[in-house]
Predict the 3D structure of the following.
Amino acid sequence: MKIGTEGQTGSLGTESQMREPCPNIERRPRSRRTGIAAREPVAVVTGASSGIGRALALELACRGYQVGLVARRRKALEDLACEIETRGGRAQVAAADVGDRQALHAAIQQIECALGPVDVIVANAGLGTPTRLAPLNVADVEDTFRVNVLGVVYTIEAVLPGMLDRGWGQLVAVSSMASFKGLPGESAYCASKAAVNLYMEGLRIALRNRGIAVTTICPGFVATAITPMDAAAAPFEITALAAARRIARAIEQRKSGLIRFPWPMAMLMALICRLPDSLVAQLVGHDEGRSQPSDAPSR
């Protein structure tokens, strides 16, 4: 049972859901800080080619942000940028794998040269690969941690020095409710998301008086192209658009801390965390890598 993530859980809903956000871009700056208000704020979203990342990029553009788009699939990013610009917004494409530190830093530098300093970074790209036992798929585990953990670290590293110099910014990482419990068949995925939670928590405490908000997003099942349509396999599933709007509100309100949604899934996960292992296995299934979390491979 893989829960929420990045471009990340469920089946992607319909194309109309993904393209619904707004008919025309609202051209207004959202930053409250003097100086930044003179320009439209810049938000960069990794994993923007599909799922939550794509929906969030559209939603932020609707709310007046210039949007930097990062993912591996350039064509998908160019199509998204064209859609944003057709509606009157501004977007900059930079293709890169978040697990490649040098390439990612070059991509974000390219975006800053085109749009200006980054005010909000959303480390959304992620990978969901089942953890198998016989044999243990170590290469997949390594790739999961490279993308889901180091990808977040590299993304933040690219913009944090500038934010510290300006005394302003927001760091956002898309984690998952699967981060709260090690689930059978999803050990690496759950562990990688738990690492993201603690990494962001440490940053939040360290940056509490530096003008930088640190936000960790933990969605449940989000409808994307790779998740099962079976409601029993993805309880309380929400659309990518609904998830994007929740995240965009948290960004506009500069919320620091850990944000979980939808609340019924948060309650269910809290219950699962208190159950004995035997019941967890029965509830979520114990087959190796049987389930997928939120819109997984969206790098």
Q: What stands out?
A: Residues 138-166 form the longest helix (29 residues). Residues 5-19, 27-32, 289-297 have pLDDT under 50 and may be disordered. The radius of gyration is 18 Å. Residues 159 and 206 are 16 Å apart (CA to CA).
